[in-house]
Lipoprotein-anchoring transpeptidase ErfK/SrfK
Amino acid sequence: MTSPLLPAAALLLLPGASLAQADLPSTSEIRAILEATQEALTAPDPVPGATPEAAPDPAPAPADPAPADPLPADPAPAEPEPAAPEAGEDTTAQQPLPTLEEIEAARYEGGPLPDGRSALTVKVQVLLDRAGISPGVVDGWRGGMSESALAAFERSRDLPVDGILDAAVWQALGGDAADPIMMRYTLRDVDFEDLNPDLPSDYADLAALSSIPHRRITERVAEAFHMDEDFLIAMNPGVSFASGDTIWVASTGGAVATPVTRITVDKSTSRLSAYDASGVLVVDYPVTIGSPDTPSPSGTVTVTAVAPLPTYHYNPDNFVQGENMSALTLPPGPNGPVGSMWIDLSEPSYGLHGTPEPDSLFSRQSHGCVRLTNWDVEELSRLVSEGTVVEFQG
């Protein structure tokens, strides 16, 4: 349901589009409202989450909608799989979690990002996100997505491109003069609406539901603030994540508003870049593309429509999930196979869409479509229009 505290979202339907859409605010639109109501962190407590100051009343986190109308064609997204670590990460390393004070005080002192997890990597990930260069999830780990984001940032600033943090990159990010990296957010009753901790994994069981919402409040909040769920929990030790709790979240900046006229999807770097009419880079995101068996399109296509909170049409002729040999229609929701947003392309059955597993972008392959985090594809959906050019390269 939609909270009465939130303004109704305008229905986003491109001219000539045939996709029906839910008339509800997107996750990233609501997140922008949430951020605007929060008090920025200026002097973090040594222990995050311990008796924090009361924050202003926020707007609620996104509620899950009634099902949207079916898409006109059967997209072929990846079958949901267990979440995987970012490529190159050492998740077995027992490194101390950076504290809030360490994150805010982090400075570049030479060399690349530290191996494993560090306060400096948290800070760099947030600064990249603020610059429109998505690192994927903010988790503090040095890995493939962070390095690809650094390379994209270097390209956008005409710096030597190697994906390695150096003094020039740090200065261009404004690292020494950065606003606080973390901020306070207070959970409210409405944030807990429509959670379903018992979501099944089988498509036939999912098809029997009215929506495919978030499972946990921590999953919902992590997505709203571009964070890895485990990192969010770890940054708030001793917090039960109950209504009324004030927690620490990443402050990743405001929404981008510049329209884009051209998009490139680089298969060699697994990055999507979007440019304005003057050829200036507006945003750059990590993506998952198709496998050799189910490749993404080649050449140039165009955007034909945008569908927030789409239903998903499972077709066993494209791939088989479990023992499901009949076509199924799955309801909408952020944990559905195509996430919270579908950007339809002129190549039949292909699109740019979200994912219920944002931390798996660099460790999974799609079934031909281009998969982004829910928050990145929601942002992109507000920047495109019918006819926006999408070029597949590499």
DSSP finds nine helices and twelve strands in the chain. Residues 1-25, 33-93 have pLDDT under 50 and may be disordered.
